[in-house]
Design brief:
Layout lengths: L7 H13 L9 H8 L3 H13 L3 E4 L3 E4 L1 H23 L8 H8 L5 H10 L25 E2 L8 E7 L4 H9 L7 E7 L6 E5 L2 E5 L1 H4 L2 E5 L2
Antiparallel strand pairs: 1-2, 3-8, 4-5, 4-8, 5-6, 6-7
Helix pairs in contact: 1-2, 1-4, 2-3, 4-5, 4-6
Length: 223
């Protein structure tokens, strides 16, 4: 299936709904959709009503939205395409880790299913994007991540960075400059009071991360 029956705006709403629910099908507040997509709540509400009429989203008033089966199929296909293009750009074209996300955002809309699956085969069927987020399989299934945001760790806890979510160019550039990437070991050294920065040790460096940045870094705790 090619992503040709929907425009890019529609696709981004569907994709974002999957990502914010981690593929669980849980309701996603319209305000969360609006914040992630950088639009007003009014605009997001109008789009949600439009997608509901198309049978792609189900809306529970005052609670949020969930994808219908048709919406979920479209969204997971788009996420799979995005992740595979990121892998291709990183591994085959040797593009920087922090740059592949933006380029993949443009490429993800172009490929049909046949091209996407040829791409997956050429890359060895990867199960995660370069930023650690789980890639849907060809049937749209997503393995829920087993991790927690850095903001939930206590001083002295340690683990490995598992993924960066949600991604943005500014965030990825910031993290790349400090080598704060998936599979890097990380230890929480100190948390400043009053929602202050989190001091973490990664390699031989100590980084002081604001709460907003730390909320995008997910960690799999060491057992």
């Amino acid at each position: 299936m090619k992503h040709e029956s929907f425009n890019e705006s529609t696709e981004m709403y569907l994709k974002t709904a999957v990502e914010l629910s981690n593929g669980s099908g849980d309701l996603v507040p319209i305000s969360a959709l609006a914040e992630r997509l950088g639009v007003s709540v009014v605009s997001a509400t109008e789009m949600v009503h439009r997608l509901q009429k198309q049978g792609l989203l189900a809306h529970t008033p005052y609670k949020g939205v969930a994808l219908t089966p048709d919406g979920a199929r479209q969204a997971t296909a788009l996420i799979r395409s995005h992740h595979l293009w990121e892998r291709f750009l990183l591994e085959k074209l040797d593009m920087p880790w922090e740059e592949v996300h933006d380029h993949a955002c443009r490429l993800e809309h172009a490929a049909n299913t046949a091209v996407t699956e040829r791409l997956a085969d050429s890359l060895g069927q990867p199960t995660a994007c370069p930023h650690g987020n789980p890639t849907p399989d060809a049937d749209g299934r997503i393995t829920p991540p087993d991790d927690i945001p850095l903001t939930e760790l206590e001083p002295g806890q340690n683990g490995q960075i598992s993924r960066i979510f949600p991604e943005s160019s500014l965030l990825l550039n910031y993290l790349a400059a400090r080598n704060l990437k998936p599979e890097q070991a990380i230890i929480v050294q100190e948390i400043a009071p009053f929602n202050g920065p989190i001091a973490v040790v990664c390699g031989e460096e100590i980084h002081h991360l604001g709460q907003e940045i730390a909320a995008h870094i997910f960690v799999k705790l060491d057992e």
